[in-house]
Every structure is written in C-alpha cells, then in structure tokens.
Design a protein that fits this description.
By secondary structure, the chain is mainly α.
Length: 251
Amino acid sequence: MTPVPEILPLALGVCLAAGLVHGAFGLGFPLVATPMLALGTDMRTAVLLTLVPNLGVNLWSLVRGGGWRESVARYWPVALWMLLGSAVGTLLLVVMDPNPFRLLLAATVVLYLLSHRLERVDWSRIRRHPAGSGAWAGFIGGVLGGTVNVGGPVLMIYFLELRVAPLVLVHAINLCFLLGKGTQAATFAALGLFDLALLEASLPLLIAALAGLRAGMWIRERVDASTYRGWLRGLLWLLCGLLVVQFIRDL
C-alpha cells in the first residue's frame, strides 16, 4: 500500500474533480476517482482513500431533492444484495494481487461507456422478474464495487430497464452505494486495513469531494449536460487506456 502522505495531494485533486462530476450527473464519483487514483498508486490504496469521500457524496446525493424515503422503501432489497456483494468483493481485493484489478476496472468503465449499445440486447427479463434481477444486479454490482470501486454500470442497466424516474434512479443507486461502501469500510476495518490514521487522512478528501459535489450541482443547473458528458466520456476513455498500459507494465 502506498504511504498516504505521498498520494494525498493527488487524492485531493481527484476527489474534487470526482465530486464535481457526481454533482453534475447525480452519480459517478467512484467511476472517476478510482481510475484516476489507480494511475498513481495501487488499487487497494485507491479504494481505501475514496471510502469516506464516497460515503459522504452518496449520503448527500441520496437525501437531496426530496422523495428519497419512497425510493428507499421500494429498492432496499437491491441495496441489501449489494451489501453482500461488497463484502465478497472487498475480501477478494484483500487476498489477491491488486494489479489485475486495474484491468478489471478498465473493463468495467468500458462497460459503462458502451452501455448505450446494450439497448440491442433483450433486457425484458428484468421487467418480468424485477426482484430476481434486482438480486443479481445488486450482488454483481457489489462485487465490482468491492474489487474495483465501480458497481454503477450494472445498477444503471437494471434501473434504466425498469424505466424509473431520473430522481428515483439517483436515489436508488446512491442508496446501494451507501450500503456497499459502508460494508466495505466495515470489512476493511475488521481486517485492520482501515484505521484511525486513514480516517483522519480521509477527512480533507471528504471536504474536497463535497466542495466538488456542490460545484457540480451548480454546473448542472447552468451548463449544457450533453457537452459536459462528452468531456467526461473522453476522459474516461483516456483513463482506460492508461490503466491497461499500467497493468501490462506491472506484470
């Protein structure tokens, strides 16, 4: 694991940028923060440093906008499955070599970037069996969240196929992330990897993430979302390429 002081300046900038993206779109903090941090450190350190900022951003996004209690009451089973998957994924991250998770992270981000092409696939089973599909989506999303910090693409496919309202989608996904990241933090703590020193180091990152989140919410109300989304997609494609290069370099 990379010493925290060495990576802290980079982590502050990354959390600020990732919070801004999350504020602009209602989700996306780990999708941006994890690959950017993984370029300067190992995957395990990247996940650990983003835990507290992730929790803060998810909690704020969940309760903002009203109607979140109804979303929680409806979709809590999916979040519980994500809780279980997150525990499994976190254990995999701890016991395995973290370098291959760079490649898994790149593949997960590519899944997100190409998710619009999955419309050609027949996803009607999700609507016919929402409970069973929700269990699989939550568990797989949790495993990906535990290993590479990015379970969003799987959950987005599930909730978009159910055709839920945009605000409900944001509430539901952030609820799942909140439970998943909470489970991950508890698992790391039980294994002795998440201690008071790391928590203290995470507090400035939380402040940076929340500042970025607020700025992103301001931008969302004033800037053309399609233009901003194009910039984000370009950045993510670049990060995917760099992650693959680093994976090959560290073999």
